[in-house]
Specification:
The complex is a heterodimer of chains A (293) and B (239). Chain A is of the alpha+beta class. Helix content of chain A is 26%, strand content 29%. In chain A, the strands form four sheets. Chain A has a five-stranded antiparallel sheet with strand order 6-5-4-3-7. Classes of the chains: A alpha+beta (293), B mainly alpha (239). Chains A and B meet through helix 3, helix 4 and helix 6 of A and helix 3, helix 4 and helix 7 of B.
Chain lengths: 293, 239
């Protein structure tokens, strides 16, 4: 996004706040305009507050506004709406992304953001689904940072990159134009994006998919998700015995079009009626099979 | 759950002492103890279970709590003088059992992607058919013989109990058949037999010429406590 709209830009005063990890923006600047790019190489979450209420949430990547949502508005529409509002925004709180397990910006209820907690992907997706979460999630899982575009209908992987092991400061930095991550872009570019991960002492460059060509891990072929159906049948056989085969076939017929992740989330919901042991057993079965496979 | 043997033995001991030993009304206390024991055992089972099995066990426990209230009322008040209060508690108990059977039906149908609505209709029709046949063979005579409002009200509730218990029996059998070979079949097959015994007890009760007769070794009492034996066995085997 160009800064041609700066004449209407609302000047935002940062509210000083001690954050759990990393440096606060006050160490960098006292205030800045709410634009698509910061004058600082900041990476992390931004909460734009007015009278102690969060009016918008943003995700910055190396100083560029990656994602913004305000109420039901997202991206450019949200930015323009906020810029055009005449009320005095109380402040913008930024939470650095360094050493975070999770960063999220959402149009719904805010998640517990930035916690350095252990997250199990399947459970976390279930949690997102239950909360009706909608927005962008960056999740650091082991040595991989996954970026998800979460809608009520699906959770799609929009990109991923290798990250440093824990205890090492990881800075994520986009090179070139600002990425769009399969959303309504804040940028005008559709170029393929090079994602540079700058570690202390080393740099790696990874390709991330351009808008419209989402890395789609969710549309597997029948043979790829065969292990899921086998695991389901094994669990069902324990509880409903001989009927497990036909139950699995019918479930398969109805939900085969779903991607792996959505399918697993759906099956978890279904198996939860048997109790947590069934879900755990299903998870273990899947993990065992994926290791074997 | 091996613990189930204890209340079952106590209840049968009291029942047999009353029936075989010829101690007036003691058999009824045996029935009360049996229902109360099932209430406790099903609640314990629900605490140990999870998922839909937990809900099922809890509902069965609550049902037997209401059942034991009914048994207790029968012990305190003679059947002809109570305006059907005891039967009203049985009615509540069977309504809760019915809820448990419906929850089982819905869950198993959902998991196995089978129909539930039409089978529920079949189950209710089966209940109406059994109650109708009971009325045809016995009921009209008893209805005619009922001397007052209390007797007729009690009899009407008994017909409702027959509809309920037959419906529950159908649903339990259906759930057991659908989950045959799995752990859930255990959850339904013995309770199905238990409800069948209760149904037989209800029919036997309704088949009497008069409601005012209450004697030791009543066939309906034998059927009822035997039906509850199946419930104890279910608890014993499931957990």
């Amino acid at each position: 996004m160009s800064d041609s709209s700066s004449s209407t830009v609302q000047q935002v005063v940062y509210v000083s706040r001690t954050l759990a990890r990393g440096k606060t923006l006050t160490d960098i600047a006292q205030g800045f305009a709410l634009t698509a790019s910061l004058p600082h190489q900041f990476t992390g979450l931004g909460l734009i507050e007015y009278q102690n209420e969060t009016v918008a949430r943003s995700l910055y990547q190396n100083g560029h506004l990656l994602y913004l949502c305000s109420g039901e508005l997202e991206q450019r529409a949200a930015l323009e709406s906020l810029q055009n509002q005449r009320f005095d925004l109380r402040g913008l709180t930024l939470d650095p992304l360094s050493m975070m397990a999770l960063a999220a910006a959402t149009t719904g209820t805010a998640l517990e953001l930035g916690n350095n907690r252990v997250i199990e992907e399947i459970d976390f997706k279930l949690e997102l689904k239950k909360q009706g979460f909608r927005g962008i999630v960056m999740l650091e899982m082991a040595l991989r940072c996954v970026i998800w575009n979460v809608t009520p209908e699906s959770i799609e992987v929009s990109g991923s990159l290798e990250v440093a092991p824990r205890r090492r400061v990881t800075r994520l930095a986009w090179t070139g134009e600002m990425p769009s991550i399969s959303m309504n872009s804040l940028t005008d570019t559709q170029d393929s994006l090079a994602l540079t991960q700058t570690r202390i002492g080393s740099t790696q460059t990874l390709e991330i998919a351009p808008e419209g060509s989402t890395i789609n891990q969710n549309k597997p072929t029948a043979s790829q998700n065969e292990y899921i159906w086998q695991a389901l049948e094994r669990i069902l056989r324990v509880y409903v015995g001989n009927g497990a085969v036909s139950a699995t076939q019918k479930t398969r017929r109805d939900f085969e079009h779903l991607g792996d992740n959505e399918l697993i989330v759906h099956l978890h919901d279904q198996l939860r009626g048997f109790g947590d042991k069934a879900v755990e057993s299903f998870k273990r079965d899947l993990q065992a099979q994926s290791k074997d496979g | 759950m091996r613990l189930a043997v204890i209340p079952m033995m106590i209840a049968w001991g009291i029942f047999l002492a009353g029936t075989v030993g010829g101690i007036p009304n003691l058999s009824g206390w045996g029935l009360t103890a049996s229902s109360f024991g099932l209430f406790i055992m099903f609640v314990v089972l629900s605490l140990r279970g999870e998922g839909i099995a937990q809900t099922f066990a809890l509902l069965m426990g609550l049902g037997y709590m209401a059942h034991s209230f009914g048994d207790l009322l029968y012990q305190i008040y003679p059947p002809g003088d109570q305006l059907g209060f005891a039967d009203a508690w049985y009615y509540v108990a069977y309504a809760v059992f019915l809820a448990a059977s419906i929850i089982g039906l819905l869950f198993i149908s959902k998991v196995m992607r089978l129909s539930s609505g039409q089978h529920f209709v079949f189950a209710v029709l089966f209940g109406l058919m059994v109650a109708g046949l009971t009325f045809v063979f016995y009921g009209y005579q008893n209805w005619a013989a009922a001397s007052n409002f209390t007797a007729r009200f009690t009899y009407a509730l008994d017909v409702l109990l027959i509809i309920q218990s037959a419906t529950i029996f159908y649903l339990f059998v259906l759930n057991a058949v659908r989950s045959w070979g799995g752990t859930y079949a255990k959850l339904f097959v013995l309770p199905a037999l238990g409800i069948a015994g209760a149904l037989a007890a209800d029919i036997t009760f309704a088949a009497r010429r008069t409601l005012d007769v209450y004697y030791l070794g009543d066939p309906s009492d034998w059927l009822r406590i035997t039906s509850q034996l199946f419930m104890y066995l279910a608890i014993f085997l499931v957990d």
